[in-house]
Amino acid sequence: MAARIQVLGLGAGDLEQLPLGMYKQIKKVQKLYVRTKEHPVIDELVREGVQVESFDHVYLQHGGFDEVYEQISRELLDKAEQEQEILYAVPGHPLVAERTVQLLLEKARSQQVEVQVLGGQSFLDPLFARLAIDPIEGFALLDATRLTAQQINPELHTVIAQVYDQLTASDVKLTLMEVLPDEHPVTIVTAVGAAGMEHVETVPLYELDHHQGFGNLSLVYVQPTQDDTVRNRQFARLREIVAILRSPEGCPWDREQTHQSLRKNLIEESFEVLEAIDEDDPDGMCEELGDLLLQVLLHSQIAVENGDFSIDDVILGLNEKLIRRHPHVFGERHADDANEAFATWQEVKAAEKAAKGIDPQELSQLHGIPRELPALMYAYKLQKKAAEVGFDWDNVADVEKKIEEEYEEVKQATAEERAGELGDLLFAVVNLARFYKIDPEEALRLTNRKFTRRFQYIEKKLKETGKTFSESSLPELDKWWDEAKATE
Length: 488
Prior knowledge:
The protein is an alpha/beta fold.
């Protein structure tokens, strides 16, 4: 006969609240195994003569709860194999916020041990009654030891269990502060439903870890909020706003937009992000990234209305691609440096094309370069692609000679030929930048900013002297230009 572990819950209160069936089960066994003695029912059972063996000593052997629960589950399985049948009791309900029971259910299958959950009352029923909340309005139960900001939905009633001590409470506080204002009310509840032991206190979030009475029966309740300062930090709220703007009751301009009409906005917003980066302006970058994100949401909302895709599909595709193309991070591959990582990326990318029925041998070597890139950047990528198959100059001296040749052709060109010859010269200069390992687009941006600073210095000097450009000589303007250059 297979060994068996029966698991029951001690409820959230005292012995009076323990169901009669559970009480009879406990009184039948010679020994009751409990995860912890820190529960109001245990002392009463001991006084009635029930022999209790707890695993409180395991908590002292490990620095983290994961290791504690692992050891408790292993020891219970060993005891079941030795004794054939044991009764294990946990606070509350065995299947509510009780990791040891989940581990038993997982491990028992491989060890041929039957785990039978008998039931019990969780702390949730007395909690809902004590706080007078209806969970159907939206409710989340979270584990304090595994809490992340992504789990917090400020529009839901949120119960955070396993807030054992001030250190755990501090972690909970810091996580909640990523979503909620410092003054948001939170309620600390200990031993809910236990007569004479229950304690309920509401404090501002920033004072959460100042409370002195945390223990094994403590939890934190976070009331929902519709405050705009909180909701407007949520991605879901952004999606909602964009959908409203596109709705019949929304904005006439937004309703008229199409993928094509928004095309130029996407380009402009991208360049405004780049400008904020170049100016080392974090506040500006934050704002411009928001404008760029709006373009992504608008295109996704239009796609939803067309029945094509949603922002969820965009996120799904991106997440899957990132995981797939980083097997050295999310899989079993290894990459010791950036070059190995890039090689892995290219390898996976090629496999993706093959899976789509695209034969890389059938594609031009220049395939995949976006046509709408700025001309300098486009030229740079063309040359890099060509160089990958050996179509390249042998050394930088050859490139410099080519530039000289192209410059001579520009000087000798007719008016009709000049644009083409000047393009050839620029293309050759881009090649030189590539040999120097300099991004030509970035190099020209640096010069543009440098020119702007010096020119604006001249404008400042003109204002100080009360003169205009037409009233100033070129030597005078050059002097101020040199002054600006000297200050850099």
